[in-house]
């Protein structure tokens, strides 16, 4: 169904097809276009038409964003959908426009966050907690309103036809009619004379009202007009009415910010449904069941892969998508086609960038081309100047240290923030880099063009540059780091706010937490060697249960008497380890505090990895496949530790 304009008349009076009458074209339909300068607010949908050539989905989204007034920071909320809205295109999907056919796609907000409006709600990450930045700006709110209104009136919003729900739908229609009156600068009665209230309610409800008797329909119409005149006396503007409409519509929908996918479990005929919701992550349910099993939230994902399925050894069209969590748990599902698999993975990939790491992608099958450019150029996304300067300060603020980022205001510009030494002291200077349609780059105010950002930065790195009255050199780049915080990330309501710094405060003794073990329950066995300030023994831990005693093999790390001054560090390490739980990390059972301070750990049969490799290197036990499996397990364990902001001693900076 075509996107509806914001004052669209009855659906029956217009075409419901997006299909292009022009051959050899690609049409991108918009729900709302930005108003031209010094013109009244636009209330009509629009179309962007592209002729012969190749276009990526991301390139089309950028063109659409420019037409709709969407800024780069909100660009990542949008995507392209098929004409019937049944599937979405990943950012790197390539559209080819030629004589063979015409194509139609729809530019939509795909990534939605409940509770996006109001204090204490979902917001963009900020350095200071009391300066929360909203997720959406006004152009995006205008677009979301037009899109949501189109879905509501077009019947894509599932609404029960109970009496309370009918009243809520009519209340939304009152808000809609009043908005039209405000924007057209007409009275509610004038608008009612040429726009029917039925054009502002879903088609199923229109059909139900049409089946009522003449007197019932007249009573509904009279009640509607009375409500419209009553609310019309309120002094408010169209923008507030749009916000009220969106918030009421969100409450009306059971699963507002959620997508569902019908899939199969590989090797099984059973159908399951995968649910992806911005506020909770990924869950699944069996076909026909209301009960859901939660799999994980977006920040808990470690890897995603897409591979072709096979039947009896022969490849088929189906695709298997594997999601792996940081704890190595796996969810594997089978999609009927590659297009549906990429639609699903692009959704997960996009939410991960919005909630966990703005510069990350899981697999190249759906990687945004602009992100790949940024990774190659060590360029940040459209972060604010506040975060750019703060990152340079954290990195040491050495003269010549610089940060490259995309402009928050312009899709075709970059900003270079440089730490410079001036007469008045240290300062941060900003240079504007522009890009033309041919892919050439230049510093604003300088005629010389470069074919790449690397060439531009390399040239000015050698000869220096002048900006804002200061002579500067480009000595070292400050690139994006994994999972670093910026205003590109969204903090969801109900989810803990990510820390602004990885530094963890040192704990005092009374804050340390670990399980205490009775020294009498431990039996010391053979010596296994020694650590930096401990003697290591194999031992046994006895636990009393209902049917007697239960023995567990353990490793005992006994604090060396000559290192009593390290006891606080010893206990702090135990406190940290007690809060870690991962299948590829050695488990800490607890600490025994008696005559000796003893750390009680899980006994691992083959011992430390480095010693095992040295011992078995020449015996054929260490195969290539075994090494790959161990490397994978190490990667998951280290990724888990990184998420917890903990550095393992054997991979600390001084040992790399």
Automatic annotation (TrEMBL):
Keyword vocabulary terms for this entry: ATP-binding, Kinase, Nucleotide-binding, Phosphoprotein, Repeat, SH2 domain, Transferase, Tyrosine-protein kinase
InterPro entries: Band_41_domain, FERM_2, FERM_central, FERM_domain, FERM_F1, FERM_F2, JAK, JAK1-3/TYK2_PHL_dom
Enzyme class: transferase
Ranges of residues in domain Protein kinase: 522-656
A Gene Ontology molecular function term of the record: non-membrane spanning protein tyrosine kinase activity
Domain FERM, residue spans: 24-359
Signal peptide boundaries: none
Reactions accelerated catalytically: L-tyrosyl-[protein] + ATP = O-phospho-L-tyrosyl-[protein] + ADP + H(+)
Gene Ontology annotations for the cellular component aspect, listed alphabetically: cytosol; membrane
SMART domains reported in the protein's UniProt record: B41, SH2, TyrKc
Catalytic activity, EC: 2.7.10.2
Domain SH2 residues, every copy: 378-460
PANTHER family linked to this entry: TYROSINE-PROTEIN KINASE HOPSCOTCH, TYROSINE-PROTEIN KINASE JAK3
Family: Belongs to the protein kinase superfamily. Tyr protein kinase family.
Protein name: Tyrosine-protein kinase
Lineage of producing organism: Eukaryota, Metazoa, Chordata, Craniata, Vertebrata
